[in-house]
Amino acid sequence: MARDQVFSEPRTHIVDFVFDETVAAVFPDMIRRSVPGYELVVPMTGLLAARAVAGIDSPRIYDLGCSLGATTLAVLHALASLGMTVPDLSIVAVDNSAAMLDQARSTVRDPRVRFVESDVSTLPFEPARAVIMNWLLQFLPPEHRAPLLERIRGCLQDGGLLLLSEKVHADDDATEAFNRAAHEDFKRANGYSDLEISQKRTALEQVLITDTVESHVARLEAAGFREVHVWFRCLNWAAFAARA
Ligand SMILES: C[S@@+](CC[C@H](N)C(=O)[O-])C[C@H]1O[C@@H](n2cnc3c(N)ncnc32)[C@H](O)[C@@H]1O
Known about the structure:
Layout: H1 21-34, H2 38-52, E1 60-64, H3 70-81, E2 90-95, H4 98-107, E3 113-117, E4 128-134, H5 142-155, E5 156-167, H6 173-189, H7 194-204, H8 213-222, E6 227-234, E7 237-243
Parallel strand pairs: 1-2, 1-4, 2-3, 4-5
Antiparallel strand pairs: 5-7, 6-7
Helix pairs in contact: 2-3
The structure holds S-adenosylmethionine (SAM).
S-adenosylmethionine binds next to helix 3 and strand 2.
């Protein structure tokens, strides 16, 4: 796994973060060393998605913002581990970064998986049993979020699941300060220097815009989901399961 050194050299001008070839080349290392819980949330998402398609004929699963296909692979792995055979399953793995998809296509070679290069805000959805959106919604302009969730709700069959993971923020200053300080230590302990931490924070400032857990839940309910569960929380990271 190539080591993430994207922000290791001092920069005079820090441009907004993009998912380009440089990031794609080190992405598995970057996300594991930056996102608390990544190594739990991905396989758990796989299990939840696998359970959502049990006993369903020809189910479709979307993996939105699939990057290198880690969560798609987790779904396939979960099906195998649970001994589930799902006839005519299809997984549509979507990303708008050609660099990410190039690598994903060479890593995930499974006839059940189709990679699509598209912006999720304009992607037409077909009926689905599960939609996975791990750490993508936070990168969309805030005004695009509710319309996308409504379209996802609209494509989900009754009982289907949206599995959503996000960076969040706390709505009180003390919790926010505690979570931020603990996250910086998480990154230091994973080998990032203070320079890397601060340059990456600046690069993400305008592009990664968080919501609170409460606003996520309220927006999912307003989009028509009938059950919303917060199944993971660690500092400023949370994962939701919303049932249609
Ligand atoms: C943090 S990564 C997601 C990680 C991935 N879900 C995983 O589990 O490893 C965010 C991904 O969303 C993609 N992305 C960002 N905005 C997008 C959009 N509007 N439409 C589609 N993909 C988008 C990025 O290219 C990037 O690959």
